[in-house]
Amino acid sequence: MTEPLFDTGEFRQVCGHFPTGVTAVTALDDDGAVAALTVNSFTSVSLEPAKVLFCLATTSSSFPVLSRAARIAIHILGQDQEDIARRFATSGLTGAEKLEGVAWTPGPGGVPLLPGTPAILAGTSDEIITSGDHVIILVDVDHVHRKPTAVPALSFYRGRFAAPVTSLGG
Fold first, then answer.
1. What pLDDT was estimated at residue 5?
2. Structural domains in the chain, sorted by start
């Protein structure tokens, strides 16, 4: 592979020009360890079977739990839930510590579910693919929940939480 003609910071800034949604991911492994983190690299993969994916740095403190998770839940956050996104993005806290003070209920298999979020997809890990310094975690979805709301989804754009992008001008 040839050496790129740019640095990591420039690459990150260029990618930041693509607005993304913000999700909160929770997971539970067979030993009862919990992960809680903020993810903006999330997408649907397949309708039949229902499958989604998200990406995670292998250096993330949540990686060990997610790599052996029995159950995973992805919560699509509303614009009024930036506090959860910031809390789950805090480094130095365990998944259990990130969940302290956050309303949650045990979902299928005990995975923490955040009932105040507009949408939840939960399931089991299907495959973990290593690519560079990240992994792609594919999730077989077996549980969905949608809460009707007029609040737009929380977005991330140019390194900041943002209102949904309605115009690509300027």
1. 82
2. 22-154 (2.30.110.10)
